[in-house]
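Narrative of accomplishments. A recurring question from our advisory board has been how the design workflow behaves on a single, concrete structure rather than in aggregate. To address it, we present the structure tokens for one chain from the evaluation set, followed by the sequence designed for it. No filtering or post-editing was applied between the two.
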């Protein structure tokens, strides 16, 4: 059977349902030095354009105040309108820190939590660990239960599927083409047969995955911000197009879930929860986990160190932390006592409040039938499990790969060893490119990856990927593991490597 495949041309340059935890936040009003509270059940975005300047400049006061329910302002300390610039070394001295704050007229943000659970709730099943390489840990006892619940939710979405439709896109104009395709509401619930114009290949599922992956790769660059957990963000001068842009995002998000049973792996979980449940109240554990993925790696390392051992921060690190606060609109001084609560406020603002305006367009574009059948059946744990099962760590990818034959020849054993060593050495971005090259999607494949071998050499030597069957052909003619890694990295960084051909 003809199959779509990727290969590098010889000689080419391969260069809420209800959220379990609600947060009660004391809001600081920097403009007049007062602490004020108000209550709201739903975020107000209708008057966004009229209040644009206010939202941009005072999101820490007005927008975050929409989070409060039944809040009281009793015994809330007052604070000065501006943060006085203090000597960093003097300010962070452990013995005199609180006195310095008092002398400067600065009090602390306060954040308290309450829960509807019993006094000893069960342990959270998910948590991100390791500041340098974010991973997720899951209690093994919950795996089977969550998998069954998720399968039931997806089955409800599958019932809505209709006959297929052929769509044609160009790889270099994928954003514009997808916007055109999804301007027609009837595309939702259709099975797709994708044709990349100018490329060979028949779609047995691989090209559909490739279309969604290519769309999100471009959309994340143009319309989102963040490192490993991205949130909607466009320049103010593009706000007139915001509804058109993020309506397409919402349709593609839900249609991808329907066809591929997955979500974009770098779409921020807290932001997705806010969209699905139409809320701005996300529990602090989830916010902190996702914010660590949202910030840059150096920021992630600094924040993790401050959370674990604030008193061990160097003077330079404390200065960087104060700058981080200022950049993110937290106009107070970091302290060991209140650092976690302050960071939760920053995370809430960056992941939920700021993108709220754009999130509304995403939610409105999700079909009501999808909302009833699938999204409303989820909760925080199920969405976390969905992210967890897609996360492509090196260990999990190694568990996915298998050779087509059990009895390998000596040269095949060597090539297979080179591949495994390569997988262990790549970073998250390279891992996503590798999976996209082999399977058409940067996600962990549910049905594994099959490795076969070829005898191509010289200028003809190249790996060949069959995305429909998740099969990778690798040559056995590499002189060393370094030779293999150089060629594989060159291929993954070459746009030509992702063009489909028929073999």
């Amino acid at each position: 059977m003809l199959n779509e495949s990727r290969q590098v041309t010889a000689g080419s340059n391969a260069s809420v349902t209800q959220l379990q935890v609600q947060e009660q936040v004391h809001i600081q009003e920097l403009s007049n030095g007062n602490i004020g509270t108000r209550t709201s059940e739903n975020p107000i975005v209708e008057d966004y354009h009229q209040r644009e300047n206010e939202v941009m400049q005072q999101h820490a006061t007005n927008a975050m105040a929409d989070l409060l329910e039944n809040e009281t302002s009793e015994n809330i300390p007052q604070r000065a309108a501006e943060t006085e610039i203090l000597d960093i070394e003097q300010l962070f001295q452990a013995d005199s820190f609180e006195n310095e704050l008092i002398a400067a007229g600065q009090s602390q943000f306060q954040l308290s939590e309450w829960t509807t659970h019993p006094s000893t709730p069960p342990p959270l099943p998910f948590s991100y660990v390791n500041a340098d390489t974010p991973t997720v840990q899951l209690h093994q006892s919950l795996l089977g239960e969550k998998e069954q619940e998720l399968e039931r939710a997806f089955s409800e979405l599958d019932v809505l599927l209709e006959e297929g439709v052929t769509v044609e896109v160009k790889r270099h104009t994928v954003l514009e083409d997808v916007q055109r395709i999804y301007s027609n509401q009837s595309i939702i619930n259709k099975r797709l047969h994708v044709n990349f114009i100018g490329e060979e290949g028949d779609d047995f599922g691989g090209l559909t995955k490739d279309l969604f992956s290519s769309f999100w790769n471009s959309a994340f660059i143009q319309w989102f911000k963040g490192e490993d957990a991205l949130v909607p963000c466009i320049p103010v001068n593009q706000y007139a197009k915001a509804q058109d842009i993020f309506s397409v995002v919402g349709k593609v998000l839900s249609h991808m879930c329907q066809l591929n049973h997955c979500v974009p792996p770098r779409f921020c979980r807290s932001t997705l929860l806010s969209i699905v449940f139409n809320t701005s109240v996300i529990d602090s554990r989830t916010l902190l986990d996702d914010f660590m993925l949202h910030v840059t790696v150096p920021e992630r390392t600094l924040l993790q160190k401050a959370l674990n051992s604030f008193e061990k921060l160097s003077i330079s690190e404390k200065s960087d932390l104060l700058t981080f606060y200022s950049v993110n609109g937290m106009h107070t001084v970091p302290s060991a006592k209140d650092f976690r609560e302050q960071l939760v406020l920053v995370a809430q603002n960056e992941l939920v409040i700021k993108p709220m305006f754009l999130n509304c367009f995403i939610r409105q574009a999700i079909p009501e039938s999808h909302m009833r059948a699938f999204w409303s059946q989820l909760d925080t744990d199920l969405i976390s499990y969905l992210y967890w099962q897609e996360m492509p760590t090196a260990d999990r990818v190694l568990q996915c790969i298998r050779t087509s034959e059990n009895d390998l020849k000596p040269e095949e054993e060597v090539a297979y060893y080179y591949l495994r060593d390569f997988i262990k050495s790549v970073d998250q971005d390279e891992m996503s490119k590798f999976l996209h090259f082999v399977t058409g999607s940067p996600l962990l494949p549910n049905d594994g990856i099959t490795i076969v071998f070829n005898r191509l050499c010289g200028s003809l030597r190249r790996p060949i990927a069959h995305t429909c069957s998740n099969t990778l052909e690798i040559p056995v003619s590499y002189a060393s593991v370094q030779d293999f890694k150089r060629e594989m990295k060159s291929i993954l960084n070459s746009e030509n490597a992702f063009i489909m051909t028929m073999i």
